[in-house]
Amino acid sequence: MKSIFFAFFLLASMLTLAQGNIIYHLQVQGPNGDGLSNIQVIATESKTLAEVKGKTDVSGKLKLNMDNGKEWLLSVGELKNTIQVKAVDYSIAEIGKTYIYDVAAFLRKKTQILDRSQISFLEKKQLVSAKDVLLESECMVIVKVATPQGKALNNISVSVINLEDKIKYTAKSDINGKAVFKVPNQSKYDIDIESFLNYTYCDFGKGSIRRTIDAEFVPMTTKEKVVNDTVYHKVNQYAKPTSSRALIKLTITGGKSKGINEPVFLRQLNSSKVYAVTTNSLGVAYVLLPIKEVFMVDFNYQKSVDVISLTHKTGLVTGDYSIYYNPDPRLEYPEKFIPTSDRLFIEDFNSFLKEQFVKPTDRPFNIKVKSMLKINKNSKEALFEMTLATSSNYGKGNRMPLHPCVGFR
Prior knowledge:
It is a single chain. By secondary structure, this protein is mainly β. The protein folds into four domains: about 1-105, Immunoglobulins (Immunoglobulin-like, Sandwich), CATH 2.60.40; about 115-215, Sandwich (Immunoglobulin-like), CATH 2.60.40.10; about 225-330, Immunoglobulin-like (Sandwich); about 345-390, no CATH class. It is built from four helices and 26 strands.
């Protein structure tokens, strides 16, 4: 009996740890660095929607025990889903984080947009010195770009974007890492560094103001080849993440080749871009993906297999994903799904032209649905014919749009 009980306890413990447990220590501070007390924090598991709640103590500290989950989103006070935490399978992780609770900054960042492809900007190149005299209606932005170790970065592209006026001010950093801009006051500006959109922002009110922004930045040195909307690049396990790109490791299993030399496509949502890589002899591929974006994982014969979300990621980001490839036979062998002659029925197309459907006189339209095949409880597919006849007056004058919708059960 003791052996059975011990085995059951061990199995239950393994199942509990299978999704990973997290002991999360959070320090919530205001913009001035003071600890904020009585701030409610809610952790929500992304799939099960299980919740763990707590409030910060007088020093702004809080400990949450998040069990039986893979990915948690933390809401801090008024700021929803602002922290993402991922568990490691079969392990207990203890994580500490300091979070700056700044509602105004959070709401300002929410106004930033990543997809500007539909906006036509007037570009203004800046050849400005930090010593230039400013007019009363002008402000100066000095962006100092340097590595995390403090080394100034020369020849880095920096853009200051005014979305309201659709103006893009551009400049390159000098040998001291400085990119200098002279812009109108009483405006809001988003700042890009290289391909890192919305690195930060800078807003000005009335008056002539000079503002310096220290930008810690790791540039991307990997060369990319872009063909139409598809981006190709080769990186390996020795590659490093950059300020704008997360280094993602993909381990692929399944499929005919067992994941070896398998093309993988990372489709960027809300964009037409696709990042294409091929696994190596171990079924592993590495790819540098833009942070703050969401990607669907596709294969040649299976679509939307998994999702990679980098929306809540900041800093130098790495990720590790194991994905099983189960090819859809309808895509891999479409010839096997072409109906045979005994499964087809022939209908003279002219019969559709000759047949007249009675137009209603007492209502805007008539709709009729007819089954073209016999249906029983074992049926997996069905074919229906839907006909629609509108009255002679339908469409004249003001009318509500017509949206036919048919449901079956």
